[in-house]
Amino acid sequence: xxxxxxxxxxxxxxxxxxxxxxxxxxxxxxxxxxxxxxxxxxxxxxxxxxxxxxxxxxxxxxxxxxxxxxxxxxxxxxxxxxxxxxxxxxxxxxxxxxxxxxxxxxxxxx
Length: 110
Fold this sequence. Notes:
There is one protein chain. This protein is an alpha+beta fold. The protein is built from 3 helices and 4 strands; from the N terminus they run αβαββαβ. β2 (about 65-70) and β3 (about 75-85) form a beta hairpin.
């Protein structure tokens, strides 16, 4: 059996609380409230795909996390990076994210 590589990151370990209610988009903003900027990366229909990208982002030193959301009755797994103290740091992470093959949109936390 292969160990879950995501389990080492408590913020991404959704197995610890399988009965958790889906979050909405505001959760990403609240999570990033320690910094001034975050990077919106993408939305995935399966948790497995989102977690696979989280592992890749960790390998290139991008602090990222997943937010479970419900949009029009569909469960989505949103990837975010941050928080970052300034736009320059967020833009640098955005470049790493784009280089890894994903989209990256810098946004003010708030």
